[in-house]
Amino acid sequence: MNAVPEFILEQRPAQKQIMTVLRTWVLDLGPHTTEKISYKVPFFIFMGHCAISTLSPMELI
Question: pLDDT tens digit string along 6-33?
């Protein structure tokens, strides 16, 4: 299993459900969409540009 699904599985149930839905939507954009993890934070790349991070702004505080 890659690091992004592992990260999602470690979250609380409500966050896990939201992150799973967001991940599915973003990856369904097409073959130009990839997921990566950096500093334990998942993010998605669409056509070479960062599309979305699953990190909540409140987690940055």
Answer: 999 999 999 999 999 989 988 898 888 8
Structure token pair of residue 18: 């939201």
Q: At residue 31, what is the residue type?
A: P
Token pair 């979250």 in the structure block, residue = 11
Place of tokens 């409140």: 58
**Where is 18: in which H helix or E strand?**
helix 13-27
CA–CA dist 53, 50 (Å, integer): 8
Measure the CA–CA gap between 40 and 18, rounded to whole angstroms.
18
Q: What is the pTM of this model?
A: 0.70
The DSSP secondary-structure symbol of 8 reads H
